[in-house]
Write a structure and sequence with these properties.
Layout lengths: L9 H11 L6 H7 L1 H17 L3 H15 L2 E2 L4 E2 L4 E2 L6 E2 L4 E2 L4 E2 L4 E3 L11 E2 L4 E2 L4 E3 L3 E2 L4 E2 L4 E2 L8 E3 L4 E4 L10 H41 L1
Parallel strand pairs: 1-4, 2-5, 3-6, 4-7, 5-8, 6-9, 7-10, 8-11, 9-12, 10-13, 12-14
Antiparallel strand pairs: 14-15
Length: 226
């Protein structure tokens, strides 16, 4: 099983944030002002109670963390080392989610389910996965190592290692052979914008066809009345 918050020390979390966030000036600022850090450390506590089947206590701690940080991590979720939630507001991580090492989530990310199914119903993330702001990864699917998900994407199918995914529904726009070293927001955003432009062009074409169809129907009705 991935993660159990294994060996995830406060020092390691602070060093991770300093490495990932250029805005982080020092350890005291991180300790006091980073809700992602607070949420992860409180999840370690709630997880301790959860695995000992003290479910109510575990949920109370997770709800306190949600109130404090705006980040909801179910105590049942398993998290690897050096997990970083940047900004964090609106992040939701479901009960059976599994998160590998060196994973980065931005604000508004959802690792959720797709219904009322039982058992494993939330995503599994491999190592070094990056998920952009507002993206949703839904269902019992796997994002393998080094996957990047563009902002606002909705991913409902498993993704192979080294791929970059954008769009609704998410589709692979870059594979391991073309993989980005990091989540370069400009390039991922450009791919997403290109897809949006294609969709807008298709919508315009549909509207044109609808208008033409209405003209043809009006003409037929006029001929019938004549």
């Amino acid at each position: 099983m991935l993660g159990e918050n294994r060996g995830m020390s406060l020092r390691e979390q602070i060093l991770t944030i300093k490495r990932e966030d250029p805005a982080a000036k020092n350890a005291l600022e991180i300790l006091l002002c980073y809700p992602g850090l607070h949420a992860v450390m409180l999840h370690s506590v709630s997880r301790w109670f959860y695995v000992r089947r003290m479910f109510v206590v575990a949920r109370l701690i997770s709800q306190f963390a949600r109130f404090l940080t705006g980040i909801e991590i179910h105590p049942g979720a398993t998290i690897g080392r050096r997990f970083f939630i940047d900004h964090g507001l609106g992040v939701v991580i479901g009960e059976t989610a599994e998160i590998g090492d060196d994973v980065l989530l931005y604000q508004g990310v959802t690792l959720g389910g797709t219904g009322n199914e039982r058992g494993k119903r939330h995503p599994t993330l491999g190592n070094r996965v990056v998920i952009g702001a507002g993206a949703a990864v839904l269902g019992n699917i796997t994002l393998e190592n080094d996957v990047k998900v563009g902002a606002g994407s909705v991913v409902v199918h498993s993704v192979p290692a080294g791929s970059t995914v954008v769009g609704i529904p998410g589709r692979v726009v870059r594979t391991r052979a073309e993989a980005l070293g990091t989540l370069e927001h400009g390039r991922v955003a450009a791919a997403a914008e290109a897809e949006i432009a294609d969709i807008e062009q298709l919508s315009d074409r549909i509207r044109e066809l609808e208008a033409l169809l209405r003209l043809l129907l009006d003409d037929r009705v006029g001929q019938a009345r004549g």
